[in-house]
């Protein structure tokens, strides 16, 4: 009787454990991620290895993936629109810096909370008398921003409807115009703007208003067509993003990568350029 009982017990345990073992065996073990190649300090091409992306978001994703037990590789997929297409199609699994976009909800699963936030600041010349304490103060003045800056939809609509903001190829042109008095103010990311102003030697001449005018979140976004996209992975990533935000890992990663990017800006040859 002992042996049949043991056999029955084994079969019973097998029925209980079978689904979880099967699920574990089918779990994604490797992800390919991509994103903007020119969004420092969050993400940009590695000058030493241009096939890969580096930055604060890359560091945070790699840390989360290691804790979960998944290998991840951050690959350059071309300009941002090309990176989005690669993920939509499922040729790559994940965007690592996706702004929340309603139009993308048909092809991407956004992981909440965001992996990082990009504070958009209003910059002006230090000697300007205009207070610019609110957006209404900007009416009648000329502004500028990089063509590649990403704003939240409500703020973008406000800018388009009420303000005159010229779009320029990059931050170098944006801040040079501000310094020359050709525009009255600039919208630029806190960290990218800070690094560019320092690099151009304009820290004594240009300042940012103390409060962010916009704060777009940058999200992990899994493709509907990715073999890795399942509820277990989305839940694990959401847990890790929540832990990251609570422990300020995101802030530490941004600070570390800001210094790295600033050092790279001082080097003559680089595949990355400031854009926000």
Q: How would you concisely characterize the structure shown here?
A:
The chain is an alpha/beta fold and 276 residues long.
Shape: globular
Assign the CATH class of the largest domain: Alpha Beta
Structural class: alpha/beta
Low-confidence stretches: 3-26
Mean pLDDT: 88
Give the N-to-C terminal Cα separation. Answer: 75 Å
Largest sheet: 5 strands, mixed
CATH superfamily of the largest domain: Periplasmic binding protein-like II
Number of helices: 8
**Helix-strand topology string:** HEEEEHEHEEEEHEHEHEEHH
Strand content: 15-25%
- Name the CATH architecture of the largest domain: 3-Layer(aba) Sandwich
Describe, in plain words, how this protein is organized in 3D:
By secondary structure, the chain is α/β, with parallel strands linked by helices. The chain has eight helices and 13 strands. The protein has two domains: 29-118 and 217-265, Periplasmic binding protein-like II (D-Maltodextrin-Binding Protein, domain 2); 120-208, D-Maltodextrin-Binding Protein, domain 2, CATH 3.40.190.10. It has helices spanning 2-26, 56-68, 80-89, 153-162, 171-179, 190-199, 231-247, 249-265; strands at residues 30-34, 38-39, 43-46, 49-54, 71-74, 94-99, 108-117, 120-125, 142-146, 164-168, 185-189, 206-208, 217-223. The protein has a five-stranded mixed sheet with strand order 5-1-6-13-7. It has a five-stranded mixed sheet with strand order 10-9-11-8-12, with helices on both faces. A three-stranded antiparallel sheet has the order 2-3-4. Strand 2 (38-39) and strand 3 (43-46) form a beta hairpin. Helix 2 crosses helix 8. The longest helix is centred in the N-terminal third of the chain and has 25 residues, at 2-26. It is globular. Residues 3-26 have low confidence and may be disordered.
């Amino acid at each position: 009787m002992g042996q049949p009982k043991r056999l029955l017990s084994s079969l019973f345990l097998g029925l209980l454990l079978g689904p979880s073992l099967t699920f574990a065996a089918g779990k994604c073990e490797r992800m390919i991620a991509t994103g903007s190649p020119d969004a420092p300090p969050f993400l940009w091409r590695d000058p030493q290895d241009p096939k890969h992306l580096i930055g604060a978001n890359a560091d945070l994703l790699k840390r989360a993936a290691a804790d979960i037990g998944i290998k991840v590789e951050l690959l350059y997929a071309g300009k941002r629109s090309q990176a989005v297409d690669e993920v939509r199609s499922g040729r790559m699994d994940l965007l690592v810096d996706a702004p929340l976009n309603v139009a993308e909800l048909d092809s991407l699963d956004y992981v909440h909370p965001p992996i990082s936030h990009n504070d958009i600041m209003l910059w002006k010349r230090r000697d300007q008398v205009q207070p610019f304490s609110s957006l209404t103060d900007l009416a009648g003045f000329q502004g500028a921003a990089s063509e590649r800056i990403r704003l939240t939809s409500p703020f973008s609509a406000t800018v388009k409807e009420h303000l005159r903001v010229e779009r320029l190829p990059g931050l170098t042109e944006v801040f040079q115009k501000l310094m020359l008095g050709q525009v009255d103010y600039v919208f630029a990311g806190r960290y990218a703007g800070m690094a560019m102003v320092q690099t151009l030697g304009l820290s004594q001449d240009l300042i940012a208003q103390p409060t962010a005018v916009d704060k777009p979140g940058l999200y992990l976004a899994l493709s509907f067509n990715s073999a890795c996209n399942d509820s277990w992975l989305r839940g694990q990533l959401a847990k890790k993003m929540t832990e990251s935000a609570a422990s300020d890992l995101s802030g530490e990663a941004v600070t570390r990568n800001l210094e790295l990017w600033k050092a790279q800006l001082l080097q003559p040859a680089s595949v990355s350029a400031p854009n926000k």
